[in-house]
Structures are given as structure tokens and as C-alpha cells.
Amino acid sequence: MTTLETPRLLSRPWTEADIEPFFALCSDPEVMHYFGGPHSREKVEATVRGAMEAQAQFGVWLQPLILKETGEFIGMAGIADVRFEEHFTPAVEIGWRLARRHWGQGYITEIGKAFIDHAFTVRKFGELVSFAVQDNERSIAVMKRLGFTHDPADDFDHKRVPDELPHLKRHVLYRLKNPAAA
Ligand SMILES: CC(C)(COP(=O)(O)OP(=O)(O)OC[C@H]1O[C@@H](n2cnc3c(N)ncnc32)[C@H](O)[C@@H]1OP(=O)(O)O)[C@@H](O)C(=O)NCCC(=O)NCCS
């Protein structure tokens, strides 16, 4: 299991105590806009339990983000093996979700760099991908800040987005190669 530390942040494995603040975050319509709106308590609990299992198998996952200064749970970020089939899988993705009041302070860029370093130097993955709904500009801005690049030929319609949400189907895919990979 993996814990990463940066000057301002800690990312560590999930605990039961994270369910409550994660539910609060997943109740914010602005944060959850690109996930089809707020998630129920049951769905959030299932997400956390799934993440606990996945992190035990994979060693790291999309995991809690803690502000060191206060100990506050402020979101989640991490790397995960993509668990659906697409033209770019198998692949390892990097992803993030941050409480609204903490946007605009560079926290995701800061922890993103730490996860990229972990992915490339410790886990030695050859490439990371990141994907988002095509108009999720804040998420795409993080990808660009972290050095990910985009080829429109990679874009795809996400199979797991329900047909009732057609405006959330089209996704852009960004990639970052491990500079140490051949
Ligand atoms: C996507 C999301 C995580 C991005 O959060 P964010 O705060 O914009 O991203 P960062 O933490 O990298 O912060 C970047 C901002 O902080 C500013 N900043 C301040 N200090 C900074 C620093 N030291 N380093 C980098 N940026 C810094 C940047 O200028 C930028 O500001 P801007 O918003 O005016 O452009 C957030 O919008 C979110 O949670 N969205 C909802 C969930 C979601 O859609 N997740 C992605 C699904 S694919």
C-alpha cells in the first residue's frame, strides 16, 4: 500500500473514517457535474469499499488526499488500472476529485507530480493516460500542466456513461510516456 507526501499534501490508503468527508464532497453538484450529479451515500460507500479492494490488489489507487497543515480530507487522487476495455487499454490512468473550496491552489498539480514520479520510477509503468468529458476544462488544464499530450484520434465515447447522459459520453484521452521507457 502506498502513501505519498508532498510539501502540502499526503495521499494515503482509504479508511472507514474517510467515507463521511468523501460523501460530503460527492454531494456537491459542482464537483460532481461531470459524474452525472451528486452520488448517494450507498454509492459512495460502494466506491470506497471498491477502492479499498483495488488498492490492496494494485498497491495504490485513487486514494484520499489530506491537507497536512490541518489533517483535513480534501479529495482523492491517484493512479489505477483502467477497468474497462477501450482502444487504449490495458492502461494505467491518473485521476482526481477535489472539494470545491480547495480549487485554484495547485493541490492537484502538486500531488499529480508525485503520482507520476511514483508511477514511472517505482512502478516503472511505460505510460500513464488521463481522460475526461470533453468540456471538463479544469481537469484537462491539470493534464496539460502535468505534461500530458492529446491526439484527437484517441478520443472515445465512454461505455460506462449511461445513455440518459449523452452530453457526458464523449471523452478526451491524454497520454504521458515514461521518459525512461524504451
Ligand atoms: C479537476 C480539478 C481536480 C482541478 O482542480 P484545480 O484546483 O483547478 O487544479 P490544481 O489543484 O492543479 O490547481 C490549479 C489552479 O491553481 C492555481 N495555482 C495556485 N498555486 C499553484 C501551484 N503552486 N501550482 C500549480 N497551480 C497553482 C493555478 O493557477 C490554477 O488556477 P486557475 O484555476 O485560476 O487556472 C477540480 O476542478 C475538480 O475536482 N473538479 C471536479 C471533479 C472532476 O471533474 N474531476 C476530474 C474528472 S476527469
TrEMBL record:
Cited InterPro entries: Acyl_CoA_acyltransferase, GNAT_dom, N-acetyltransferase
Pfam families, sorted: Acetyltransf_3 (PF13302)
Domain N-acetyltransferase stretches: 9-179
Coiled-coil regions listed: none
Name of the protein in its database record: RimJ/RimL family protein N-acetyltransferase
